[in-house]
Amino acid sequence: MTGVASAALRSPVGPLFIVASPAGVTSIEFSDGRAAARSGTGADPSAERHVAAAVLQLDEYFAGRRREFDLPLDLRGTPFQVLAWQALLRIPFGATVTYGEQAAMIGRPGAARAVGSANGRNPVPIVVPCHRVLGAGSALGGYSSGLDVKRSLLALEGVSVAA
C-alpha cells in the first residue's frame, strides 16, 4: 500500500509495529519482527508524522509520562467494531470496565459477546485501550496478544487483577 508509513518500536511488552495512513494510525501490532518486512517506500509525509508521533507517545506511555494519547486514528472495521473501539477511547487511564459495561456504553446492553469480539479485532491496541476491559466479576478475560501482556499493561496503569 503506497502512502503508508511504518516503524518498529521496542517496548516493555515486546516489539511493536506501527502503521499509519495520511489520515492517522491504522494499526499497532505485537510483532516478532516479521512485520517490518512489509514496510514499503513512498510514504506520505502526513503518515510519517503520525507514525513518529505514535512512537514518541508510546515511549512516553511506557516510561510513565503519558496517560492519554493524542493521535489521529484511521480506524477501519465494521460500523459496530468502530463504535466499540470508540467506546474504549472513553475508558480513562487506570480504570477498567466489563464487556457488559462497554456494551451499555454504546447503547447495546445485550451485546457483551459482540463487544468482546470487536475488541479482539482492535487494530490499535494500547492506544485504543482494549486491555482495560475485563470479564464479568473482574475476571481478566482475553487479550489477542496474551494475558501476560494485558496484565503488564494494566499493572503499568496501576491496576492489579487476580491471576
Which geometry do the CA atoms define? globular
Strand composition percent: 15-25%
Poorly predicted parts: none
Compressed to H and E, one letter per element, the order equals EEEHHEHHEH
The rounded Rg comes to 15 Å
Number of strands: 5
Fraction of residues in helices?
Answer: 25-40%
Query: What is the rounded distance between the termini?
Result: 41 Å
Total of helices: 5
Largest sheet: 3 strands, antiparallel
Mean pLDDT: 92
SSE blueprint:
Elements: E1 5-11, E2 14-21, E3 24-30, H1 45-62, H2 79-88, E4 97-98, H3 99-105, H4 112-120, E5 133-134, H5 147-156
What do you see in this structure?
- It contains five helices and five strands.
- With 163 residues, the chain is of the alpha+beta class.
- The strands form two sheets. A three-stranded antiparallel β-sheet has the order 1-2-3, with helices on one face. A two-stranded parallel ribbon has the order 4-5.
- α3 (99-105) packs across α4 (112-120).
